Amino acid sequence: MRGKCGNSKFTIVKFIMAVTSTDFRFSLNGRTMQVRDVPAQFTLLDYARSRGFTGAKEGCAEGECGACAMLLVCDDPVSRTTYQAVNSCLVPLPSVADREVFTVESLAENGVLSEVQTAMSAAGGSQCGYCTPGFVVSMFAEQYRSGPATRDVHSLGGNLCRCTGYRPIHDAFLSLGPAPAGRFKERLSRPVPALAPLRYASMEGRFSRPVSLDEALQLAADGNSRFVAGNTDLGVVTNLRGERFHHLISLEAVPELREFNDGPEAVEIGAALTLTEISELWRDAPSVFREWLPLFASVLIRNRATLGGNLATASPIGDSAPLLLALNAEVQIASFAGERCLPLAEFFTGYRMTALRPGEVLRSIRIPKPFPESARFFKVAKRSMDDISTVAAAIAVLCDSHVRMGLGGVAATPVVFEAPDRNALQELLRTTLKPMSDHRGSAAYRLALAQNLLARFES
Amino acid sequence: MSGFPHESAVAHATGAALYTDDLLNRFPGILHAWPVLSPHAHALVTGLDVAAAIAVPGVVTTLTASDVPGEGDSGANKRDEPLFPSEVTYHSQPIAWVLADTLEAARLGAAQVSVQYKPLSAILSIHDAIEAESFHSGPFRIRRGDAALEVANSPHRLSGQLEIGGQEHFYLETQCAISRMDDAGGILVHSSTQHPSETQEVVARVLGIPRHLITVECLRMGGAFGGKEVQANPWAAVAALGTWKTERPVRVRLPRVLDMALTGKRHPFYGRFNAGFDTDGRLRGLELSMYSDGGWSLDLSDPVLWRALFHCDNAYLIPALDAAGWVCKTNKTSQTAFRGFGGPQGMIAVEDILDRIARHLDLSPHAVRERNFYREGDVTHYGQPVKDASRIARIWQELKESSDYEARLQSVAQFNSTHKHLKRGIAITPVKFGISFTATFFNQAGALVLIYRDGSVQVNHGGTEMGQGLHTKIRRIAAESLGLPLDAIRVMPTSTAKIPNTSPTAASAGTDLNGAAVLDACKQIQARLAPVAAGLLERAEGRSVPFVDVVEAAYRQRIQLFAHGYYRTPEIHFDPKTATGKPFHYFAYGAAVSEVEVDGFTGENRTLRVDILQDTGDSVSTLVDRGQIEGGFVQGLGWLTLEELVWDDKGKLATAGASTYKLPSWPEMPPVFNVGFLQRATEPGVIFGSKAVGEPPLMLAISVREAIRAAIAAFGKGGVITLDSPATPERIYWAIERARSVA
Q: Which residues lie closer than 8 Å to B530 by C-beta, 6 or more apart?
């Protein structure tokens, strides 16, 4: 399996080092905000609220409830402008430098409500109202989404409401027509400027946004830094455990990490592509990918979370590893020393540990072709959607009746098993798996699930 | 019937609706508070040194026991909640607080506070508490007849036990208080509280000053569900203490993870029973012991337990009943009020028992339930006549028809005969829920209605708005009783400066009590304005007279344009010594049919369809009430199927956060969700003929649990299905395994 990855030689390219600055700008509700003296890990949510835009709320501070949702004007991969709803509690403020953000307050104009707001208030879609701005924002983004006319009913899956039981919100959602003409629609007709490099330094930490791989590696060379992409995992650590990082290097604008190539031998997915972007780009993805995608967090998270980030955090219960393991994926790793390629199974070296060495960055994920004849993904959790798995399993049947099974939630790392047939695989699971008990499930249940999911696949 | 939208619906949707923490920017120089948390569930605090915290840039001061001018205890019903404890009694209990210019500085400061502990052994479960005889209170006992004898003499007997998990409120807005000096030497606290008067009382106690120096205001809450009935008090007290010490505004806001670690939840319960019954499933006698996990302090655990005992009959006549309850004292969060207030735990016990009886006798559970219903003339085990008891059967029958229950039973059986790994279950369950505070003195309310000379009206009342639509209903009540359009009425934020000595907005009674008080005030004003209007109409010669003209004329005639209203619920009483009385003004009835599908490989399940018929009397707002019914149901569904609180072996809540504790989300909404209102159900003696609706629908979700049990049974060949709560996929999976293993 080794050696199939491209062995592109690293070449030293001169680039102009951006000047470190103590301020940056971004557009909030159409107004240019000049930001200075704000800690590098200050969130977009905290900033907007401090400027009086208190519609967005902090409900959980970990991207689970969506009460903080705001709209980010984004490029979608087919170079069309879109509004993406994101959890602003997980967006470090410097990462919106030079970008446009809209909060719920901007949607009504001169007292005239947007269609979404009218629909929500008429349908009884709010009770306590605390989650409502977040729902409005998610709904608005979906109404203005380009592409297929059918609305994704799961687009609001990242917003929690404790009062209504969702029925009236659902009714409001279904009542929406196409995005009406007006300034928001008009904005979609204009492109989004490419992200410029950023070197932001505050009294409390630095935030850099390189625009090339060389630049990213250069920045990381001092060792006292941390790569970040969507910040959907690191942001949780920041918010809930109070961890602070001296220097965050955002990979959002590194083009080498955002490539997507669907070739005859493999599909290669840039590590810094978001899940939403991947789903847009990978039009003829195998059905197991379409089965898996909605089970990966929520739209609010998928708009920011990257495939590379999900692997590099190396959580034993991350959603992507079981699928990619079953698909026999490899990872391409870049550094000043060149690039190397590793089977994904060898990438995870321990609980939350990877084979990445200092100075290395995950560049892409490569899924070899042909894809398995049939493959399924199952995720069992307390809640059917947007929950962390008790056990997740992807099962792929290969051409010679071989079976490969990627599993999460049964060991300290995601694991993969391969066997000549399903009976042999069942036996392998029974004899080798030693899961642990925690608040998501007992060891016995996890073992039963691993075996039963294989049985379900067969049934 | 009327569909008035929520009075803040537009403000909610535009983000203009403000909550306590949204006021933050209005107070320059505000201090942020962060607690020093205990790493032990039970320990003596043997040393505390805050000096290092003060050295952290941005830290202004700390709060410890020596800063308290009054009494450093926030307990509502008992002085057992020290704000600055010398003995830690639950994990993460705040020991001291740090105040700083920024939240970050406060947090960093708190990390520098040095505390020495002497760890003690901790009681972390109901079973540990029973073993150690660690009780806050009990036994409370309600007895009718000789239950033991009846059970012994019954042709059939079953005994068993049931574990009932707790529930996190997960109000989207976490606990928050902002305190500041008012402009005349007093203290003003903006608090997200269901009980401003009690918050005022606790602040006064801690500061050692009279209550007239303290104003507590609650603009609106981002959900409460009982979690801010008494547990808003400590945070308000800390904020006020900070302001008293520094003369600066202070903000205390618990982020989600802290809120979950520090505040109380719905009580977990453990129940044991001996039931005796006839061959047709009719209950003859029941002995029931209920143990609740009260946590570290008493809080509202006594009345919660009482309500569980009041509701362990649900809609059924139990001829001989011995229901006893204990509040266990454990080293966990102090469990508190939560929508239903013990009622759900009592009800789930009897529903569980009836299902076991049905499966033991191989009868259908709905038939067994039906046979045990209260009939007209029946009396509860605490001696209260079951008013309108025939509504139970009426609702049952109407719902069975509208939900096509019998036919669907057949199609479920058909589905199950053709599916090996997927089984469906359908169940119908009733609810009878008593309305009134069982603490009789709380059943009073006040209002203050002010009419200005331009005809606009301010309505003040003692209730708080937490999303339940109280202000919406109050607005309609005021508008209709004054004959004015809704626009003319402004319902004011709740303030102790307007209505004193208020009761908590709780027990589903917010509209019953405050609505009646507002009506009283409006009627007084109307009576005063009527002669003035009559005089003007006479002169107007048949033309109508605008309200503003009547008001202006009244003013010039020196007629009082404001009134206070008052209401107390009549004829309720309860004697805890004999456990008899009439604690409830009336009962709210309802029933639900739920159909579910369960996966035999994993225990995963989904709710396919729900039909509800609820008795809301003549609803003051069907839109608000439907929201309460659906929302309450889904919240109950969460409690019973997926919300699971797990404490680790150190007593730390392992599910403190939204990523580990899962409430119902978008896909948990039943895809078919029919809600009906019982017709011809005017409730005399209640505001506008309506009935309370806040809590009762939550318990309709027991139908989901029972439907899951029916689906589990379909994997086996018969017999009793035991299923602890919540019915998570794992518990369902093991229950299926047990059902399958029965030969």
A: none
CA closest to B606 among chain A residues: A384
CB-CB contact of A203 with A244 (8 Å): no
Active site residues of B: 695
pLDDT by residue, tens only, chain A of 459 residues: 344 454 444 444 445 556 889 999 999 999 999 999 899 889 999 999 999 999 999 999 999 999 999 999 999 887 689 999 999 999 999 999 999 999 999 999 888 999 999 999 999 999 999 999 999 999 999 999 976 667 787 899 999 999 999 999 999 999 999 999 999 999 999 999 999 999 999 988 999 999 999 999 999 998 889 999 999 999 999 999 999 999 999 999 999 999 999 999 999 999 999 999 999 999 999 999 999 999 999 999 999 999 999 999 999 999 999 999 999 999 999 999 999 999 999 999 999 999 999 999 999 999 999 999 899 999 999 998 889 999 999 999 997 789 999 999 999 999 999 999 999 999 999 999 999 999 999 999 999 999 999 999 987
3-state helix, strand, coil in chain B (%, to 5): 35, 25, 40
Q: Which of residues 162-201 of B touch A (CB under 8 A)?
A: 169-174
Pair A63, A94 in one domain: yes
pTM: 0.97
B148 CB within 8 Å of a chain A CB? no
Q: Give the one of B169, B222, B601 whose C-beta lies nearest to A456's C-beta.
A: B601
A260/chain B closest Cα distance in angstroms: 31
Closest partner residue to A154 (CB to CB) among B11, B21, B666 is B666
Residue A325 domain boundaries? 255-368
> Same domain, yes or no, for A86 and A39?
yes
Contacts of A120 in chain B (CB under 8 A): 9, 12-13
At residue B494, what are phi and psi to the nearest 5 degrees? Answer: -75, 130
Distance (Å, whole) CA A416 – CA A428: 11
Residue range(s) defining the domain that contains residue B201? 9-121+175-253
Contact B646, A366 (CB under 8 A): no
Cis omega (within 30 of 0) on the bond before B82? no
Question: Using CB atoms, which residue from A60, A124, A130 is nearest to B222?
Answer: A130
